[in-house]
Design brief:
By secondary structure, the protein is mainly beta. 8% of the residues lie in helices and 44% in strands. The strands form two sheets. It has a seven-stranded mixed β-sheet with strand order 5-6-1-2-3-4-7, with no helix packed on it. A seven-stranded mixed β-sheet has the order 12-13-8-9-10-11-14.
Length: 155
């Protein structure tokens, strides 16, 4: 699942079968795992929940204990998502494959397994976006990466 598609998913409180908010954004650590998710709870404002305190599905974020939902004061975050979105990715021959447009997440492990690469509007429309497993990319500097020889799949 694309990380960006989590935005606005409902937050489902299972014990009462009630929607208590929606996902605003996800904060990733340097290990490419979710650290926490920021929630928009309307009545109570911004909240956050740590990765070990929720389940994630394609339809919703599921919580079983409202006591695990903590207060969140918007501040500066150092999410890998913000650092790597827009990075240029090159192949071994120096060919620019495109820019990182999103991360691909495994829901049950709450871990990024790959990146989605955009080569531009027309190229994406004609050929589709490419997904590359995370282990096939070496982040050699703060704004670009290099792929290892390997298979790239079209989305």
């Amino acid at each position: 699942m694309r990380l960006n598609s989590l935005k606005n998913l409902p937050v489902f409180y299972q014990p009462n079968a009630e929607i208590v908010g929606k996902i605003d954004h996800v904060v990733l650590g340097d290990d490419f795992q979710i650290i926490y998710i920021v929630l928009d709870t309307d009545a109570q404002g911004w909240k956050m929940i740590a990765r070990e305190d929720f389940q994630l599905t394609a339809e919703s974020l599921i919580i079983n204990d409202l006591g695990k939902v903590k207060s969140y004061l918007y501040g500066e975050e150092f999410s890998v998502y913000d650092k790597k979105i827009g990075d240029t990715v090159f192949d071994q021959n120096g060919k620019e494959l495109g820019r990182v447009s999103d991360f691909l997440l495994t829901l049950n492990s709450k871990r990024v397994w790959g990146v989605e690469i955009s080569a531009g509007l027309i190229a994406d429309f004609i050929s589709g976006r490419v997904k590359i497993p995370l282990e096939e990319i070496s982040w050699l500097n703060t704004f670009s990466g290099l792929t290892a020889p390997g298979k790239k799949e079209e989305l």
